[in-house]
């Protein structure tokens, strides 16, 4: 009698172990397949950190809004940042609410910090890194820095980030250097 119970318990535990990664993959695939594309322009990048691994550190502008004294906000509180597009088609944060909005033009995030007159929102971790082949990462990082420096000096848009948004979740879909997909750009500019 004890042996069949152990087998059933083992099977249940194994199914639970499989459920977690499979459900995570399904959620991310749902965002990528059903999500709406928003294009962001990253800001100049922080100095390279050798402990972070093989990826490009994306530095999106931190959203900040005037503080509404009637809202009772706390650091770390979950909020929903609304997305809009400027005349060039690039995405920016138009505002935020504490209640989940309808539609798909929002990202779930948290309050980073509050000052006397401003609320700053945290950029979701899924929008902070762009992973790529480790052999291409050093060259990509170098080109990224060059383009960001040029952007700052000439006020151009050399780096654009495609983000897919679905149900308040966001995932980086692709990165473009001077209008060319990063993989193709790196092949052309080795």
Short description:
This protein has 3 helices and 11 strands. The protein has helices at residues 2-34, 137-154, 182-188, and strands at residues 36-40, 55-57, 64-66, 78-85, 91-97, 106-114, 118-121, 129-131, 159-166, 169-177, 180-181.
Based on the model shown, name its key terms.
190 residues, alpha+beta, 2 domains, 32% strand, globular
Describe this structure in words.
- It contains 3 helices and 11 strands; from the N terminus they run H-E-E-E-E-E-E-E-E-H-E-E-E-H.
- The chain is α+β, with helices and mostly antiparallel strands and 190 residues long.
- The strands form 3 sheets. Strands 3-7-6-4-5 form a 5-stranded antiparallel β-sheet, with no helix packed on it. The chain has a 4-stranded antiparallel β-sheet with strand order 1-9-10-11. It has a two-stranded antiparallel ribbon with strand order 2-8.
- 17% of the residues are buried.
Q: How many domains comprise the coordinates?
A: 2
* Strand segment count: 11
Look at the helices and sheets and give the structural class: alpha+beta
Low-confidence stretches: none
Q: H/E order of the elements? A: HEEEEEEEEHEEEH
Choose one word for the global shape.
Answer: globular
Distance between the terminal alpha carbons, to the nearest Å? 67 Å
Number of helices: 3
Query: What share of the residues lie within helices?
Result: 25-40%
Instruction: Please state how the strands of the largest beta sheet are arranged side by side.
Output: 3-7-6-4-5
Mean pLDDT metric: 83
Biggest sheet overview:
5 strands, antiparallel
Rg calculated over all Cα atoms: 20 Å
Strand content: 25-35%
